[in-house]
Amino acid sequence: MVVMANIRHAVSADARALAGLSAELGYPASPAEMAERLNGLLGNPDHGIFVAEQGVVAGWIHVTTVRSLESGSFAEIRGLVVAKSHRGTGIGTQLVLKAEDWAQTHGCRRLRVRTNTVRDDARTFYRKRGFAARKIQEVLDKDLPVG
To answer: How far apart are CA 97 and CA 138, in angstroms?
Structure first.
C-alpha cells in the first residue's frame, strides 16, 4: 500500500531520529554523533538531506554532488534508509524521486548509488527504479592517525 509521506529538508532537531534509522541500516551512531555530522552538512549546497514523515520520521536520504576530474559531475545517493515498520509503503521510492529532483536542479545528469553486494533487497529496489550496474568495485580503506 502506497501512502504519500511528507518529504522535507532535514533539520538539526532530526538528529536523534536519523541516528536510530542509521542503526537500522547497520551504521550505529549516537544522537550526538549524528547531530555533529548533520550540522556539518546542513547548509552545504553540495549536499541534500531529506526526511520522510508519516507521523514520525520514517526514512531519510542523503544525496550529494560529486565533482570528478575523470568523469565530470554527477549526484550520488550516500545513504537511504526507511524504518522497517514503514517499508513497502512507497517511502523509499518517494525519497529516491526527491534525490533525482535535487540532482537535476543541481545540474547533474546522472545519479549514482553504491550498495553492498550482500544487500540483495537494496539492489533489487534500485534496479526496479531504473538503476543499472555499470561496474563492480572493491572498496579499500586505510585508517589514518588522529591528530
So the answer is: 28
